[in-house]
Fold:
Amino acid sequence: QFLYCGKQNPELYFDEQIRHGISSFSSLSNRTEVENGLSELRKDIDSGKIEEIIKSYENDLGDYLYVIGKKASR
Structure:
């Protein structure tokens, strides 16, 4: 999985197996951060605020940018 896998379905982030496969959760954060974040996410989902948040990030430009560099010859 990758970080954006739950972009349109944030419930996916509550699945420990999915989080385990995402380095932002498994390698770059600690347990307390994840638990606090999931608690806040649950509040946003339950209140319906998550729909507003998702809409605020909508764009038609895509989610990734690829940069190709070329080594200059001397």
Notes: The helical segments are 16-20, 23-26, 31-47, 49-56.
